[in-house]
Each structure stands twice: as C-alpha cells, then as structure tokens.
Amino acid sequence: MSSPSMDNGQLTPETVPTTVGIDIRVESPQTLNRDAWDAFVSEHEAATPYHLSAWMLGVERAYGHQCYAVMAYRGSTCVVFCH
Asked: Quick check: helix, strand or coil at residue 78?
C-alpha cells in the first residue's frame, strides 16, 4: 500500500489509507462516537483518564486546541484509536 497523500503533513478523512474490512474515521470530539471510544479505552490495559473522550473535549473547550481522533472499526467494534 502506498503512503497517504497529505496536505501540510496533516491526515484528513480523505487521506487516511483504508484496509479491507476496516473502516477508518477521523473525527472531532463533536462527531466522535464517544461510547465506542470510551469502551475501547476502558478495556485497554495502558489507558488512563487522559485518554477518555471527556478529557479531549475538555482540552478543546478550555484551551481552544482543535482535537481529532482516528478510529478504526471492524463492523461496529472499535479496534484501534489514537488522538
């Protein structure tokens, strides 16, 4: 697979590479499936409260930083995330 094209080094929904059987989404805290995100975080052994969607939303609101989440789904199950 070739590497995605990027505008100014930033991934966008249009430049995220896709894999068969995996649905990859780039979302903001406002469009994020917070239940899926938080369920994945709660099951991950290395997760901290700073990984929860509420923290990302709080940082965005408090400091004005634009936050994005990249989530990979297999069916309706979130299998990978990063922010």
From this structure: strand
Q: Please report which confidence band the pLDDT of residue 63 belongs to, taking 50, 70 and 90 as the band edges.
A: very high
Three-state SS at 59: helix
Cβ–Cβ under 8 Å, residues 81 and 70: yes
Q: What is the pLDDT of residues 39-51, one digit of tens each?
A: 888 888 888 999 8
Q: Where does residue 10 rank: exposed (0-12), middle (13-18), buried (19+ CB within 10 A)?
A: exposed
Tell the burial category of 60 from Cβ atoms under 10 Å away from its Cβ (0-12, 13-18, 19+): middle
- The total number of residues shown for the chain amounts to 83
**Spatial distance between the Cα atoms of 83 and 58, rounded to a whole number of angstroms:** 14
